[in-house]
Write a structure and sequence with these properties.
Blueprint (H helix, E strand, L loop, with lengths): L4 E9 L3 H12 L4 E5 L14 H9 L3 H8 L5 E3 L1 E6 L2 E6 L11 E3 L2 H14 L3 E4 L1 E9 L2 E8 L5 E10 L6 H5 L11 E9 L11 E6 L7 E6 L4 E9 H6 L2
Parallel strand pairs: 1-2, 1-10, 2-7, 4-12
Antiparallel strand pairs: 3-6, 4-5, 8-9, 9-10, 11-14, 12-13, 13-14
Length: 248
Amino acid sequence: MSKSELNTDVIIIGAGPAGCVAAALLNAKGHRVRILEREHFPRFSIGESLLPQCMEFLAEANLIDTLQSAAGRHYFQPKHGAAFVRRDEYSDFDFRQKFSPGWGTTYQVTRASFDQVIAQEVERRGVEICWGHQVKDVELNDGAAQVTVQPDSGEPYRLNGQFILDASGFGRVLPRLLDLDRPSDFPSRTSLFTHIADGIVPDEFDRDKIRITIQHQHSDVWFWLIPFANGRSSIGVVATDDFFADKD
C-alpha cells in the first residue's frame, strides 16, 4: 500500500457532534475510524441550543462527563425548557415535566467550544481526526468506499473504507458528490445572527430557556435568543429571502 492510499474500517466526513459521537461509538466497538474534517477547530457554528435527546446520544457514547466537566469553564448554560412569545402572548415548556424516562435538562453552548471539547476527547480515545482534509471525490463499489482527499497542504490521497458516514451537515458532501441533491419544496429561508452582551436582568428573564419570538406583523418571521452563562447571548432572525430582499 503506497503512502497515497490508506485503509480504515469506517470513514466519517465531518468532526462536528454527529461525526464525533458516531466515531466514539464505533471506536468503543473496536472499529478503526478516521474522521475527515475540512475546517480547523475551534470554528464558529450555530445550532447552540441543545435538546435533551442530545444528552441521550452523548451518554451512549460515554461523553457526558466530558461535557459536564467543561461546562463551567466554557460558560455552557444549563437549559431545561423553551419559551414562545407573540405580541403579549407567552407560553413556556419545562422539559423536566414529562411522563417518560430520559433526560429533562441539557445545555446552551457556544459551538466553537462545545465541538472542540467533544472532538478532543474523541481524539484522546484514539480516533484519528484529519484536520483541514477535504473530500473531493467518492467511489462506491463492491461493498466498499474510496474517497479522494485533499489536505490543506500536501498531495491528495485516497482513503479506503468498508463504510462511509456523511456527518458534514450543511456541507452535504455525499449528496453533492453523488448527485443526490434534490430541490426542496419548502420556501427558502435566511438567518442573520450574532453574539451580544445581553444585559439580561435575572429576575426578569429565565436564562435556562431558549426564547422564540414571532414577529407580530409577519407570522413567518421569528427570532431566537439563546443565553449563555457568561452574560452573552446568541440572537438571530429567520425569514424568507423575499422578506430580507424587501428590507434592502
